[in-house]
Specification:
Number of domains: 1
CATH superfamily: Vaccinia Virus protein VP39
Keywords: Methyltransferase, Transferase
Structural class: alpha/beta
Strand order of the largest sheet: 3-2-1-4-5-11-10
Protein name: Methyltransferase family protein
GO molecular function: S-adenosylmethionine-dependent methyltransferase activity
CATH architecture: 3-Layer(aba) Sandwich
Mean pLDDT: 93
Number of helices: 7
CATH class: Alpha Beta
Domain Methyltransferase type: 44-131
Bound molecules: S-adenosylmethionine
Oligomer: single chain
């Protein structure tokens, strides 16, 4: 099976990433530092792509691992971090086998993102940190025309979660592989349903944010409906 990103992996690595990185205009490096932060132990990047964030994760003290669906993207990631080719909604890892997990600009590529969040929670040890860094649901999508960065135009479409290739630019990812969209409450509710506990938020990109970052931790595995323990 060929993954959508197989077709654009070389373009993503050699043209797209270099055009988005100098000066960290979207605040992605800043968000990784702020929300993942320094630590130690195993950190899984879900949908790691070409492994572009592995060096920063390592600099913060973590041992990075990566999972992605696209063999083409992983071809660039090999050598940057240990990788597996896998669907993020069925990760090939044991329960509680990671101390932290991140996903960066990838939730819109995964129509089954609520299932991915459940998998993130499953592979994290209780209390382990999960950091979502994703395109901003309010200001990015097929409904948002960002041709003029100072005056982003929001057209009807935000309220309808959908997948589209519509894009204001022909130099981005959405026009090539398409992207899903979740209105903000739907996205946040999926974290709650997965048992992820909100710990912090930030936005990146100016003057109209492009990135919304969400820091969470994995709730303990105790079933909320289990009878209370103790003397009867
Ligand atoms: C925009 S790229 C982001 C890659 C990397 N995180 C980065 O910041 O450059 C989105 C990635 O999601 C991956 N992806 C899409 N659907 C996936 C799935 N179901 N499971 C795992 N990875 C998936 C794609 O192959 C692609 O590498």
């Amino acid at each position: 099976m060929r993954a959508a990103y197989d077709e654009i992996a070389d373009w993503y690595e050699t043209e797209f990433l270099p055009s988005t990185r100098p000066g960290d205009p979207l605040g992605i490096r800043r968000a990784i530092t702020e929300h993942l932060g320094p630590g130690s132990g195993r950190c899984l990047e879900i949908a790691c792509g070409t492994g572009v964030h592995a060096a920063q994760v390592r600099e913060l003290g973590w041992t990075p691992f990566g999972a992605d669906l696209s063999a083409g993207m992983l071809g660039h990631a090999a050598g940057r971090l240990p990788i597996v080719r896998a669907d993020a909604s069925r990760l090939p890892y044991a329960d509680a086998s990671f101390d932290a997990a991140i996903t960066v600009v990838a939730h819109t590529d995964m129509p089954a993102y609520p299932a991915v969040l459940r998998e993130a929670r499953r592979v994290l040890r209780p209390g382990g940190r999960f950091v979502h860094i994703g395109v901003h649901p309010a200001f990015c999508g097929g409904f948002a025309d960002r041709a003029d960065p100072a005056a982003v135009v929001i057209r009807p479409g935000y309220l309808d979660g959908h997948w589209t290739k519509n894009s204001w630019t022909s130099h981005g990812v959405r026009d090539k592989v398409g992207a899903s969209h979740w209105p903000l409450p739907e996205l946040l509710n999926a974290f709650l349903a997965a048992g992820l506990v909100f710990e912090g938020f930030s936005e990146g990109g100016a003057p109209v944010p492009t990135i919304l970052s969400i820091r969470t931790s994995a709730a303990s595995r105790q079933c909320p409906s289990a009878p209370a323990s103790g003397p009867r």
